[in-house]
Design goal:
With 150 residues, this protein is mainly α. 54% of the residues lie in helices and 7% in strands. The longest helix is centred in the C-terminal third of the chain and has 25 residues, at 118-142. GO terms for molecular function: ubiquitin protein ligase activity; zinc ion binding.
């Protein structure tokens, strides 16, 4: 099993690795640090690697972290598993995304209720409502000649 470089530190918190995780692009981060980067993104899309900006589709925790029983480590490993569950690729990913719909909805509701993102959420909601109204107007205007002649 691979381990992070012994003379390196987490590029996010600049401290020793705590529950080290390797991304699909090969960079190492603390499990909690990379998960916080993901949770503070304005949407439910994949986290981007803070070093190379590549989308992170899989987080691989160091094997020794999986065997520890510390409550905090278990929670971080569970969150890593949820992240991997949400962003698995291919046909399996499609099935997983369908099964993970409750997790997506929870993530969206967390973002909508976040007071720090209130203005951005308000702007998105306004855009969605205006788009929906314009779509309905165009749809009904398209068939208005049927209504006028009846």
């Amino acid at each position: 099993m691979e381990t992070p470089p012994t003379d390196d530190v987490c590029p996010i918190c600049h401290d020793d690795f705590y529950v080290p995780c390797k991304t699909n692009c090969g960079h190492w981060f603390c499990g909690n640090c990379i998960l916080l980067c993901w949770k503070h993104r304005p949407s439910i899309e994949q986290c981007k690697c803070p070093i190379c900006s590549q989308p992170v589709s899989k987080l691989i925790p160091e094997a020794s972290a999986l065997s520890k029983q510390d409550e905090e480590i278990v929670e971080i490993c569970k969150n890593i598993q949820q992240y991997n569950f949400l962003y698995a690729g291919g046909m399996r990913g499609l099935f997983v995304k369908f099964r993970g719909l409750p997790l997506y909805l929870q993530r969206i509701s967390d973002q909508l209720l976040d007071i720090d993102r209130y203005y951005a959420n308000f702007q998105r909601l306004r855009f969605i409502i205006v788009s929906l109204l314009l779509t309905l107007i165009i749809y009904f205007m398209r068939y208005s000649f049927l209504i006028n002649f009846s």
